[in-house]
Specification:
mainly alpha; 2 strands; 70% helix; globular
């Protein structure tokens, strides 16, 4: 008898020859085609992804740190994906991945219970206060739209979620190094995509995004400002400058030539990404970042040499016309001109806002400031005035009270971590890594005055993670740990 039951035989060849397998495959194709006809290509792709999603969740609950690493990856790609998937609320994916990582952590350590003590630090308290103030904005009498608040929730929510998660999960030098390598790889990919945009042109979805109104800020005098798969050219340029500062400083601490070469490449391509973004304000990231690094090193020779280099860069852009024929250099040079029309418009807008906010100490409500708010409040005064600066945005939406609190948190973390780097950390490699994170953070703080980059992904995800690492240096300091063992 040659009757074959395909579900009894174990070989793949038998299964493929079975008519039952062919019928099942045809049925699956028909179902998939029907779903795609009803819900479109995205629905069909969603169905295909489901098995992989279950595998991912299994691995996540087995090892919760996977969710943390995924959050960093998501920070780089989520906003870019939005150009391809339409109106799907992909922003909620970040909320979801962070929330499910907490759930996975609780279930993973269900028997012995989660030890929350590593998260009981002043940086967590600051994150909680900032999040609490963001929640208070829900009852701000000036706020008119919950949808607008929800769209701006990330500034308070992601800091509150990421800081404790970092303290709980990133507790070894190896895990911290994994973050740095993931960051470096993603930074390289971001720049490679931008290079493709400049030399090969944008794809149809990116072209549609430009045609939807973004061309006026991304095509200057007929030349494209690269934005890669980030939200815009401003965020791309600042983030690549940020990555370059961190990567170059870390490369100085590497002894293995492969690791050193990797971080040098990240730094070089990061600077190149900054240049082709055409973002003038992003130039302040490496300038301020490296100035901070020279200060943290406490080395007079390095400090003097660094000051000479930075002054030379300033003089090059401010007082010379070298390279003026190059569009990128010409645009960056305009950032040093106080009479630049764009800069004068920003000052005029700030004067308008100052009069409006004089009697509104808590601001106009989260999500209510800048042209982005026109989606929710098309006729409101605050949505008719561009904010540009990240600090102006906080001032507009959360008032002078929110701005003071925001600046206090940033400078408290920067100053305290700088003191630890200069006088407390004993391990020289760790000292260099933390100096890299602090320097990059300061560079973004300075650039945030020109463009609202600190609160946007992926920079915000990296900044909040860095804050937690900078305030938890004792757990990574091998020399201090060894000293305590001997004592």
């Amino acid at each position: 008898m040659n009757n074959i039951n395909p579900f009894v035989h174990n070989t793949g060849a038998d299964r493929l020859r079975s008519p039952y397998f062919v019928i099942l495959l045809v049925l699956l194709i028909v179902v998939l085609a029907w779903i795609m006809s009803q819900g479109g290509l995205i629905a069909g792709l969603g169905l295909i992804i489901i098995p992989f999603l279950f595998i991912y969740l299994f691995l996540l609950f087995k090892n919760p740190i996977l969710g943390f690493y995924s959050g960093i990856v998501f920070g780089f790609i989520l906003l870019g994906i939005g150009r391809y998937v339409g109106d799907i609320p992909i922003g909620l994916a970040m909320d979801g991945i962070l929330l499910i990582t907490y759930i996975a952590l609780i279930f993973n350590r269900f028997r012995e219970r989660v030890d929350w003590s590593p998260a009981k630090k002043d940086v967590t308290l600051l994150a909680a206060i900032w999040f609490g103030y963001s929640m208070f904005q829900l009852v701000n009498p000036e706020a008119k739209s919950f949808a607008a608040w929800f769209s701006g929730r990330g500034m308070g929510l992601y800091m509150m979620m990421l800081v404790p998660l970092t303290l709980l999960l990133i507790d070894t030098n190896r895990k911290m190094d994994t973050i740095l390598y993931i960051w470096g790889i993603l930074s390289l990919l971001v720049t490679f995509k931008a290079i493709m945009q400049i030399h090969l042109g944008v794809d149809p979805w990116e072209k549609a995004w430009l045609n939807a109104g973004n061309a006026k800020t991304h095509i200057i005098f007929g030349k494209l400002r690269a934005f890669s798969f980030l939200s815009d050219a401003g965020q791309f340029g600042a983030n690549q400058g940020y990555s370059a500062v961190v990567a170059f400083i870390i490369s100085l601490s590497q002894k293995e030539w492969r690791k050193k070469l990797f971080f040098i490449l990240v730094a070089v391509f990061g600077i190149y990404g900054l240049v082709i973004s055409g973002t003038r304000g992003a130039l302040s990231v490496p300038m301020a970042g490296f100035a901070m690094f020279f200060l943290l090193r406490k080395n007079k020779v390095m400090l003097i040499a660094g000051a000479v280099i930075l002054v030379g860069v300033f003089v090059f852009f401010k007082y010379t016309t070298i390279g003026q024929n190059n569009a990128e250099i010409r645009r960056m040079r305009s950032a040093f001109d106080p009479n630049d029309p764009s800069f004068q418009v920003r000052l005029a807008n700030q004067r308008k806002l100052r009069n409006y906010l004089a009697t509104r100490p808590f601001g106009g409500g989260i999500g209510h400031g800048g042209v982005k708010a026109q989606r929710y409040l098309p006729n409101a005064f605050l949505s008719s005035v561009a904010t540009d600066s990240g600090y102006v945005l906080v001032w507009v939406e959360q008032g002078i009270v929110g701005l003071v609190l925001h600046l206090f948190i940033l400078f408290y973390i920067l100053i305290k971590s700088s003191f630890r780097i200069m006088f407390r950390i004993r391990d020289p490699v760790l000292k260099m890594k933390m100096a890299a994170l602090a320097s990059g953070m300061f560079g973004i703080m300075v650039a945030n005055y020109g463009n609202a980059v600190l609160s946007q992904m992926p920079t915000s995800i990296l900044i909040y993670t860095s804050m937690a690492l900078l305030m938890n240096t004792e757990i990574f300091d091998i020399k201090n740990q060894n000293l305590s063992i001997h004592i």
